[in-house]
Amino acid sequence: MPLVWPSHEFLPGYVAALERGWSPNNLRPVARQEELDLIHADPDAFLASLVDREALGPPVRMPDGSTVPKLPGYRRWIWDGEFCGSIGLRWQRGTNDLPVYCLGHIGYGVVPWKSGRGYATAALRELLREAAAEGQRYVEITTSPDNVASQRVIAANGGVLVEEFVKLPSLGGTPELRFRIALA
Q1: Using N-to-C axis directions, what is the helix angle for 31-41 and 11-19, rounded to 10°?
Q2: How many Å apart are CA 63 and CA 80, to the nearest integer?
Q3: Threshold 0.85, pTM exceeds
């Protein structure tokens, strides 16, 4: 099950998932419609925005409507012959630290109709290699305390629980778990 770079070849599958109600942002479900609008307006610009290693793109909208500077990063799509989900990596140059408004280095989501097949576990395993190649010594990933499936994905890839905390109000103010995965 490969990770693919977002491209015109795979865009129809991504659009179909969005149209079925899946959102690439679990903190901002409205991102689903925003992305559909961006794709319809300018598919080339949308695809280019998903790979931004220099953080040249516009600010990122938070769940409370505020904006924060974009971090360097990119998204890959999980593909098994059709779109299965998305996984992204973000970082700050020269440090493993992330700004307080960024919950983790990696975020992922699998469409509900493809869940339970080990795709998130495999995608995370692949992206960990890429994070190491970007110079990261470790990555942090957060998930809600009730998301047992995500906790299993993280643990299967060597994740260790670092802390339980409450997200900033701008991120929803709800409980969260932070895991760390050391990279070789």
Answers
A1: 140
A2: 31
A3: yes
| 120-165 tens-digit pLDDT | 999 999 999 999 999 999 999 999 999 999 999 999 999 999 999 9
User: How far is residue 88's CA from residue 76's CA, in Å, rounded to a whole number?
Assistant: 6
* Token reading at 104: 């983790």
Contacts of 118 (CB under 8 A, 6+ apart): none
Phi and psi, residue 77, nearest 5°: -110, 140
For 83-119, b/e burial (b = at least 16 CB within 10 A) is bbbbbbbbbbeeebebeebbbbbbbbbbbeebeeeeb
Among 27, 72, 25, CA closest to 169: 27
DSSP string for 107-175: EEEE-GGGTTSSHHHHHHHHHHHHHHHTT-SEEEEEE-TT-HHHHHHHHHTT-EEEEEEE--GGGTS-E
Q: How far apart are CA 94 and CA 57, in angstroms?
A: 20
CA distance 45 to 182: 34
Q: Which residue has the tokens 């990063």?
A: 73
User: Which tens digits make up the pLDDT trace of 34-68?
Assistant: 999 999 999 999 999 999 999 999 998 888 888 99
